[in-house]
Amino acid sequence: QVQLVESGGGLVQPGGSLRLSCAASGISFNIYVVGWYRQATGKQRELVATITPGGTTNYADSVKGRFTISKDNAKNTVYLQMSSLNAEDTAVYYCRATWAVYTYWGQGTQVTVSS
Question: What is the DSSP annotation of the chain?
Protein backbone atom coordinates (compact mmCIF):
# COMPACT_ATOMS: atom_id res chain seq x y z
CA GLN A 1 0.00 0.00 0.00
CA VAL A 2 1.32 3.41 -0.97
CA GLN A 3 1.47 6.16 1.60
CA LEU A 4 2.79 9.69 1.46
CA VAL A 5 3.00 11.29 4.88
CA GLU A 6 3.63 15.01 5.23
CA SER A 7 4.91 16.56 8.42
CA GLY A 8 6.49 19.76 9.67
CA GLY A 9 3.62 22.17 9.32
CA GLY A 10 2.58 24.56 12.03
CA LEU A 11 2.20 28.16 13.09
CA VAL A 12 5.05 30.51 12.24
CA GLN A 13 5.49 34.27 12.41
CA PRO A 14 5.92 36.35 9.27
CA GLY A 15 9.51 36.21 8.14
CA GLY A 16 10.02 32.82 9.76
CA SER A 17 10.96 29.44 8.37
CA LEU A 18 9.62 25.91 8.32
CA ARG A 19 10.73 22.66 6.79
CA LEU A 20 8.12 20.25 5.51
CA SER A 21 8.82 16.57 4.96
CA CYS A 22 7.10 14.04 2.73
CA ALA A 23 7.98 10.45 3.54
CA ALA A 24 6.92 7.68 1.19
CA SER A 25 6.23 4.01 1.70
CA GLY A 26 5.29 1.55 -1.02
CA ILE A 27 6.97 3.55 -3.79
CA SER A 28 10.44 4.87 -4.48
CA PHE A 29 11.19 8.53 -5.03
CA ASN A 30 14.04 7.33 -7.24
CA ILE A 31 11.55 7.03 -10.10
CA TYR A 32 8.73 9.39 -9.15
CA VAL A 33 8.46 13.10 -9.80
CA VAL A 34 7.54 14.63 -6.48
CA GLY A 35 5.78 17.90 -6.05
CA TRP A 36 4.61 20.13 -3.26
CA TYR A 37 1.23 21.78 -3.76
CA ARG A 38 -0.76 24.06 -1.54
CA GLN A 39 -4.35 25.05 -1.15
CA ALA A 40 -5.45 28.13 0.73
CA THR A 41 -8.98 28.46 2.02
CA GLY A 42 -11.31 29.34 -0.82
CA LYS A 43 -8.64 28.96 -3.48
CA GLN A 44 -7.62 26.29 -5.93
CA ARG A 45 -4.74 23.97 -5.24
CA GLU A 46 -1.56 25.30 -6.80
CA LEU A 47 1.85 23.94 -7.59
CA VAL A 48 4.66 25.12 -5.32
CA ALA A 49 7.69 23.12 -6.39
CA THR A 50 8.71 19.87 -8.04
CA ILE A 51 11.78 17.66 -8.09
CA THR A 52 12.52 14.97 -10.65
CA PRO A 53 14.22 11.63 -10.00
CA GLY A 54 17.42 13.19 -11.29
CA GLY A 55 17.12 16.14 -8.93
CA THR A 56 15.96 18.83 -11.33
CA THR A 57 13.82 21.36 -9.51
CA ASN A 58 11.11 23.77 -10.54
CA TYR A 59 9.36 26.48 -8.55
CA ALA A 60 6.30 28.66 -8.74
CA ASP A 61 7.25 32.29 -9.26
CA SER A 62 5.67 33.20 -5.93
CA VAL A 63 8.16 31.08 -3.97
CA LYS A 64 11.34 31.36 -6.03
CA GLY A 65 14.25 32.41 -3.88
CA ARG A 66 12.36 31.62 -0.66
CA PHE A 67 11.57 27.90 -0.90
CA THR A 68 13.88 25.00 -1.66
CA ILE A 69 12.80 21.49 -2.55
CA SER A 70 15.22 18.65 -1.97
CA LYS A 71 15.22 14.93 -1.37
CA ASP A 72 17.03 12.18 0.46
CA ASN A 73 16.83 9.00 -1.59
CA ALA A 74 18.12 6.88 1.25
CA LYS A 75 15.25 8.03 3.45
CA ASN A 76 12.77 8.14 0.55
CA THR A 77 11.81 11.59 1.72
CA VAL A 78 11.32 14.93 -0.01
CA TYR A 79 11.66 18.19 1.85
CA LEU A 80 10.41 21.71 1.34
CA GLN A 81 12.47 24.31 3.13
CA MET A 82 10.45 27.50 3.39
CA SER A 83 11.85 30.82 4.48
CA SER A 84 10.75 34.45 4.54
CA LEU A 85 7.22 33.23 5.04
CA ASN A 86 4.33 35.62 4.75
CA ALA A 87 0.59 35.46 5.28
CA GLU A 88 0.00 34.52 1.64
CA ASP A 89 1.90 31.28 2.24
CA THR A 90 -0.80 30.14 4.66
CA ALA A 91 -2.33 26.97 3.24
CA VAL A 92 -2.55 23.23 3.51
CA TYR A 93 0.55 21.82 1.83
CA TYR A 94 0.31 18.52 -0.02
CA CYS A 95 2.90 16.17 -1.39
CA ARG A 96 2.25 14.45 -4.72
CA ALA A 97 4.22 11.68 -6.41
CA THR A 98 3.76 10.90 -10.09
CA TRP A 99 5.17 8.22 -12.39
CA ALA A 100 3.62 7.03 -15.64
CA VAL A 101 -0.12 6.63 -14.93
CA TYR A 102 0.36 6.53 -11.18
CA THR A 103 -0.31 9.53 -8.95
CA TYR A 104 -0.42 9.57 -5.18
CA TRP A 105 -1.24 12.35 -2.75
CA GLY A 106 -0.50 12.82 0.90
CA GLN A 107 -3.07 13.97 3.43
CA GLY A 108 -1.63 17.46 3.76
CA THR A 109 -0.10 19.53 6.51
CA GLN A 110 -1.30 22.95 7.62
CA VAL A 111 1.04 25.93 7.47
CA THR A 112 -0.20 29.11 9.10
CA VAL A 113 1.80 32.32 8.93
CA SER A 114 0.56 34.80 11.49
CA SER A 115 1.79 37.10 14.20
Answer: --EEEEE--EEE-TT--EEEEEEEESS-TTTSEEEEEEE-TTS--EEEEEE-TT--EEE-TTTTTTEEEEEETTTTEEEEEE-S--GGG-EEEEEEEEETTEEEE---EEEEE--
